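dude i think i finally got it to work??
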Amino acid sequence: MSPVRVLIAPERYAGLLDPADAAAAIALGWSSGAPHDTLETLPVSDGGPGFLDTVARAHGGELQVVTVDDPWGRPTPATVLASTDGATVYLEAAQVCGEQLQNPTDDPADASSAGLGQLLEAALQCGPRRIVVGLTGSVVLDAGLGMVGHLIPQGPQQARSRAALGSGAAHLVVLDPDDLAALDIAIGRFAGIHLVALGDLGQPLLGLAGVAATYGPVLGADPGHAQLIEAALGYAVDLVRRSRPEPRDLLTGTRMRLDRQPGAGAGAGLGFGFAVLGAALRDGAIGGPATVGLAQAIRRADLVVTGSAVLGWETLRSGASTAVAHAAAEGGIPVVAVCGRVEAGRRETMAAGFSGTYAAASTLATWPAFVADPVRALATRAEAVARTWSPPASW
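look at this
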């Protein structure tokens, strides 16, 4: 009997394990439960924390450490990954716009994405033909305008524009049309460069399910505070739209609103800023795994194992592990998920392409034990799953 070729391709277990650590834990358990199998690990990411690591592990490249501003103006380190041929540079927005950078007294309305603009500056200095930015994990609520503002060259005439755009959502209400006159300069800096942003295409920018309502509470904004941020974003977005010609739909002739593009709300609204810059907005759950060669790895496998912290509605809608399941199912390869918790029903997980789903914490009561030692719990569960899916030939 030929050994089973198993591809282990989990995403991050949010707040617990990055994709590489999750893959290592599953591989450890699987090799104990089915030592006769041939294992390949391919950590995947939706463009959030761990994205650069997954790309570097898959393709190599040169990492450059730079210091930029965090959302509240404090210096913080971040990395730029250039491909081995220098043609593509990869960035991870969560490094400079993530929740982990917030202190208890930091006001979410003052958070700026200017640091991501600084990171893009570092990427441009590498002279690439393509820049790929993972947006997932950002929680800065300035619609990416701080990032855009930083890309406007410094000068006496541009100082007010940079300040108004780069001081957070609360200050967007002081924008006027003159402040946006230099947007073409920022946009022009990407001439000849294919700019790609990976994120959640289903997250709206404005409205009841918009980024202020969704991410405001995460950052400590009460409903009234979140409404003020929403109003400031609405004003700024309207001003940007009126200052620039929007493309028309080739079939209907209607204008294609930047703020309603799929992905405008990705990365807590960074997608809008990238849309202004002319970026291609792509689904991070699909694009992230594709970047590391998922399709090719699946063709080498007889079985695919993926996983996430919680397999529930949100993961089924926009998770990288679900994208792995879809891709494997399309190739006729069975795929199982080894997760912290499974909250979706059998019918829903099968419809998403999963052949089986397994939880390390089968109940909420056992969840704290999983959180306390996720590596051990994941390896133990993977060992048992391996015995089910790949028993020895003598069985």
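The first strand starts at residue 5 and ends at 8.
im so relieved honestly
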